[in-house]
Amino acid sequence: MSAKMRIAVAGAGLIGRRHIELIESSRDCVLAGIADPSPAAKEYALAHGVPCFADHRALLAEEKPDGLIIASPNTLHLPMALDCAEAGVPALIEKPVTETVATAQRLCAAVRRTGVPMLVGHHRRHNPIIKSAREAVTNGKLGQLTAVVGLWLLKKPDDYFEVAWRREAGGGPLLINLIHDIDNLRFICGEIVEVQALTSNKVRDFAVEDTAALLLRFANGALGTVTVSDATPAPWSWELSSGENPAYPRQDQPCYIFAGTAGSLSVPNMELWSYTEQPGWYAPLSRATIAPPAFDPLVEQLRHFCAMIAGREQPLMSVEDAMGTLAVVEAVSAAARTGQTISPGQIMEQAA
Predict the structure, then answer these.
(1) H-state helical runs in the chain
(2) Is the pTM of this model over 0.85?
(3) Fewer beta carbons within 10 Å, N or C terminal of the chain?
(4) What value does the mean pLDDT take over residues 151-174?
């Protein structure tokens, strides 16, 4: 039996503690230590019987872990990941990979130079529902993809906005929440090549948007719309529809629709609609259900990270791929601000 991987965690907040719980229950790895300057983190580490460091560089130097999970605030993702690259320690970086496409390009260069493998924590790519939807599209089960509909509609509680940065530009649903859905759509449908967008802040009148409408063009020719609002009671969002996180009350409603020339698929309820006879609007539609296996994508992500460290698997979500998702989100913000059609490629070129 091979030795368990020694995995450390930088950042002992909510998501960091979730990673720690998964490490402690894993058959593949053990917790090597925690890096977090807060007194609460020191107490937490003591309770878990592992060393705690105020600085991640001290953890890397003294504990020499096999891998580091970076669950720190977004501003620290780049410096921590760069330090991991220089130390030869593979990293799992929580999303977004960095704050901007420009800083993500710096990290891409470091990964290419050092050869240190890194995985970005867009964990929904490990969800069997998302994998099954991708398979249905890429294997031609829907025919030629023509249209995509995405919904992210829910109501954040008022006390959510007691934190000041959530009322300011960059703290709204575009950068905080939409990035997950954009990555899902890229993973399932392929690259997004053009973006148009409108935003509104009329509900709360904060500096940040509360509602947005997007128009997307995919490289395969499909067109998509995505509607986003964190100000409305509604069941149509991945959080409430998927059942992925038990903290959210699950609703039996779709949040994505993928339509093609041979059929259409609603996700995450995985209803597949098609014709069994000669197609046409007078013919009856047939409804079938795809049943993916059920498992926790965060558990699968950790297993994959350990396999990546061991050299058995390549990163499902590389730094370069994550930068592509970040470029789409920046394109959405630029399109809303300027009223122009923006391509993620433009964002990449401007950042270079």
Answers:
(1) 14-24, 39-48, 56-63, 77-87, 101-114, 128-138, 173, 179-189, 238-242, 297-309, 319-338, 344-351
(2) yes
(3) N
(4) 92
